[in-house]
Amino acid sequence: GGIITQTPKFLIGQEGQKLTLKCQQNFNHDTMYWYRQDSGKGLRLIYYSITENDLQKGDLSEGYDASREKKSSFSLTVTSAQKNEMAVFLCASSIDWGSSYEQYFGPGTRLTVL
Amino acid sequence: GDSVTQTEGPVTLSEGTSLTVNCSYETKQYPTLFWYVQYPGEGPQLLFKVPKANEKGSNRGFEATYNKEATSFHLQKASVQESDSAVYYCALSDLSGTYQRFGTGTKLQVVP
Known about the structure:
The structure holds two protein chains of two kinds. In chain A, strands 2, 4, 5, 6, 9, 10 and 11 form a seven-stranded mixed sheet that branches. The radius of gyration of chain A is 13 Å and the shape is globular. Chain A is 0% helix and 54% strand. Chain A is mainly β. Chain B is mostly beta strands. The A-B interface holds A 4, 31, 33, 35, 40-45, 48, 50, 56, 58, 90, 92, 97-100, 102-108 and B 31-32, 34, 36, 41-46, 49, 51, 89, 93-94, 96-105.
């Protein structure tokens, strides 16, 4: 078995601030994903990475940067936090880049912007 | 592009009653279809997936049939328990072949 760890669990930021979320997996999976979860909007893909140092934009990449410097880790940066923004950011991984593979999710980072 | 539409929640049921969560999809390909479940405080986890049309997936008493003609993948359970309270997501493998596209989720609350 394996686990996905996301840090921090809760993140409070100020408007305009640059904020970084981190994700680690010990499944030895090739592909990793970042999703944003908003009430009533489901899971929306921000970035994904099919291997170390690869980055692919999802539907919601504007306002975000990502980095995959190691196979086991994938970080997401909110480039300029928006006032009153509240969302949960979920990291996931899958064994390979094919979309038919099961995704394993972390518990999420809950972002609040004051 | 590909899309998934599912029952809008929240859905509140009494223990022992039956559940149907509707899921319809649009795509130009032959996708793999998924149901994920998310319990409070956790990330989503796979409930089951079905790669082929006309086949059924099942797990923990939940089931869904991949209906290619109707482009549907409705989730059903004959008798729900309080422990089934969660958010359920329908998803399909995207046309790109590299990621999955999720519906908006259906929150289920089961009351005693």
